[in-house]
Write a structure and sequence with these properties.
alpha+beta; 9-stranded mixed β-sheet; 4-stranded antiparallel β-sheet; 8 helices; 17 strands
């Protein structure tokens, strides 16, 4: 898919009941109240309709993203023993290296069901998880003790983490404006930055792997757990989203954009007025005839969450005039995230 218009807010795809808008984020930073309102409404509408959107002109420099991707690639090229020494340990910490086959992302909430999926179709990826710095008992597993490259890696990722934290705050401000709330409504609930930066490497894989096992994917179908997710992807392709009709459609990489999707907690917070849409990473399209191996794919994902001590209950305006009232009981954000993570490892 490619943009079909040059207007600030354009529709990228309208196939099979799915519309993924391309929104110019620069207008949200405008001094014009009407321009900010228009962008906020466009963002909220996208989350309400299909749960996914592209943002362009975000306040993160292309050179920063290039450095992050380069540092990520070099990390995954490290000796396996170095990566294993930084291993992920617990859902409450959610920091460190996750080896290929360890995690199975799934829409299932049952650990037993996820384990069955993992044994039949393990995800073809490895990842490195980074959380907020300075959390007692949950230190990040940095490679800075190995070499100077590890020192630079830590600095790059710490700085990028904070830039994404600010982008999250701005997106939540847009959601607040779109809902008719004060634009700073969520500020205190996302001030700590209890988010997760995930570096992902999908190793090269033979075509025959997918041919022999028709259920094989690089990452299983799932929805995300938090408020919103920021996805920075390379140009390899393979990401798909599920339409309301059950069809799977490609989310083609568009240079200079970030893909943003709503998560389960935001859907719950808005009493399901916002959609948390299932997505997956599958066999990518081949670019060359006769090539029997798909090249490696890299992506960088920033999972945005409310602060872990936030109480998640239906927001004002989402339930008072609803005949069903509040669809969900209130829940602590941290407890919910640990519950979901526990099922996938």
């Amino acid at each position: 898919m490619a943009p079909v218009a040059t207007t600030p807010h354009a529709t990228v795809s309208t196939k099979k009941n799915l519309a993924i808008p391309l929104i110019d984020f620069d207008t949200l930073l405008s001094t014009s109240a009407s321009a900010r309102a228009e962008t906020s409404n466009a963002i909220l509408s996208a989350f309400e309709e299909d749960g996914f959107l592209y943002l362009k002109n975000i306040p993160i420099a292309p050179s920063t993203l290039s450095k992050v991707f380069s540092s990520s690639k070099r990390f995954f090229e490290r000796d396996q023993w170095q990566k294993d020494s930084l291993a992920w340990t617990t859902p409450s910490s959610n920091r460190g290296y996750v080896a290929r086959g360890r995690e199975k992302v799934s829409s299932n909430l049952s650990r037993d069901e996820v384990q069955k999926e993992k044994s039949g179709n393990p995800d073809l990826k490895e990842s490195f998880e980074i959380g907020r710095e300075g959390v007692d008992g949950h230190p990040n597993q940095w490679p800075h003790t190995f070499d100077l490259e590890g020192v630079h890696f830590r600095k790059t990722m710490e700085e990028f983490f904070l830039e994404c934290k600010e982008l999250h705050r701005l997106i939540m401000s847009a959601i607040a404006l779109g809902m008719g709330l004060d634009e700073h409504y969520f500020d205190k609930m996302v001030s700590k930055g209890d988010n997760n930066l995930r570096l992902l490497h999908y190793p090269s894989v033979k075509k025959e792997v997918f041919e022999k096992n028709k259920g094989q994917v690089r990452a299983g179908a799932h929805s995300d757990y938090g408020s919103v997710t920021l996805l920075f992807q390379d140009m390899r392709g393979g990401l798909q989203v599920q339409t309301s009709a059950g069809d799977w459609l490609d989310v083609t990489p568009i240079e200079g954009t970030v893909v943003v999707n709503a998560g389960d907690l935001l859907a719950r917070w808005t009493n399901d007025t916002v959609k948390s849409t299932k997505h997956r990473v599958v066999e990518p399209p081949m670019s060359e005839e006769g090539v029997d191996e798909y090249p490696a794919r890299y992506s960088v994902v920033y999972f945005c969450n409310p602060d872990l001590d936030t109480w998640i209950d239906a927001l004002p305006g989402t339930w008072e005039n609803n005949t069903c009232g509040k669809k969900y009981e209130g829940i602590n954000c941290g407890d919910y995230l640990v519950q979901r993570l526990s099922a996938t490892y």
